[in-house]
Amino acid sequence: MTDFYQSQRAMRAMRQAAMQRGVVAILDVGTSKIGCLVLRFDGPERLCEADGVGPMAGQSAFRVIGAATTRARGVRFGEVDAMAETERAIRTAVQAAQKMANVRVDHVIACFAGAGPRSYGLAGEIELAGGQVSEQDVARVLAACDLPDFGPGREVLHAQPVNFALDHRTGLGDPRGHVGNRLAVDMHLLTVDAAAVQNLIYCINRCDLELAGIASSAYVAGIASLVEDEQELGAACIDMGGGATGVSIFIKKHMIFADAVRMGGDHVSADISKGLQVPMAVAERIKTIHGGVHATGMDDREMIEIGGDSGDWEKDRRRISRTELIGIMRPRVEEILEDVRALLDAAGFDHLPSQQIVLTGGASQIPGLDMLAARILGQNVRLGRPLRVQGLPQAATGPAFASAVGLALFAAHPQDEWWDFEVPAERYPARSLKRAMRWFKDNW
């Protein structure tokens, strides 16, 4: 744990150095595509750091000067599966983005979707020596949180203070400078499988790149797709990727829960491939052009040319009705949404004041998915596109790029995390879990 705390601090320092140099790359390692954006930080703002615990701490102006995507190889369920193939795909995407930007990039900030994320809610409390709350007091109260026993083989990916309370006042975003006697904090901790993180770090290092930060796709997709009111009042972001579907819940502009379902759009394509006995590439094309989840009377009459190049004239000229295609796709989409529903129920999503659900990610573009999701999840559902970012090519503004755009915003406006504070060495949390997720239901 101490080692990881130090390595995260080193990554933050590297990110600062990269931003002062003015250029950093964003790498979205997905199951179906690997996307790379090159960001340039403009003007004197990049050197000034605004104080503040929150999503806009350290404002920086940036623009996208290079963008590229390539088909992901060697990635399954959002995790690196074949090291050499993933390395080649990352190199291809980064080199294409560098060529477009006409600049060399040494530092990347990466995000990934899998690795079995698990959320914990922690609470800590300390007595203040007197007077104003200082930076050291914030570090002490974060260190006073009881760390859960999340077992061997797992790493902490995010550890964010989401709420501070000073004496009887709660809901403080940043307590520094306030006067009081007793400081308490609620912290959200996200752990992931250590092996998956190490594989990704090793793969990026093999590409001669320095890792200046790492984030969960579910978290950054939420940053990009949820509007300010949704982040404030409470909303869930469902990021439907190729091999995994990430779920994140936000309230008061902080993420308070994240998890993932190990299924995504590629599983729908695989069902079409097996059901129609066609190659995966053909199944993907049919899904993209003709797919859907709601059959109408007209769909019986709408015939789809399957096409193919197997050499068998009869087999290559088969036709099926759109109703048959929907019959293959719908059960798998329903299964993914049922699993998402189970995660939201386990997280206590019903307790939030607002229960907006936003669908994003490449697989969210299946026609009729929002209506089906509203029926299964039983909430207000809308399709989310990422925020517009200066310099972003038109081709990269769709839901499939929510994670990449969110990661760019995360790089420019990092939220304060546990390792941003100088925690005393003897105070590293190492105790058992006493209270987890309790504040999530009670404190809001």
Automatic annotation (TrEMBL):
Keywords, ordered alphabetically: Cell cycle, Cell division, Cell membrane, Membrane
Biological processes, Gene Ontology terms: FtsZ-dependent cytokinesis
Topology in the lipid bilayer: Peripheral membrane protein
Family matches, as Pfam families: FtsA, SHS2_FTSA
Matches recorded under SUPFAM superfamilies: Actin-like ATPase domain
Main location: membrane
GO cellular component term, pick one: cell division site
Keyword Membrane: yes
SMART domains: FtsA
Domain SHS2: 24-225
Compartments where found: Cell membrane
Keyword flag Membrane: yes
Signal peptide: none
Function description: Cell division protein that is involved in the assembly of the Z ring. May serve as a membrane anchor for the Z ring.
Family classification: Belongs to the FtsA/MreB family.
Assembly description: Self-interacts. Interacts with FtsZ.
PANTHER family reported in the protein's UniProt record: CELL DIVISION PROTEIN FTSA, CELL DIVISION PROTEIN FTSA-RELATED
This protein's name: Cell division protein FtsA
Organism: Phaeovulum veldkampii DSM 11550
Gene name as annotated: ftsA
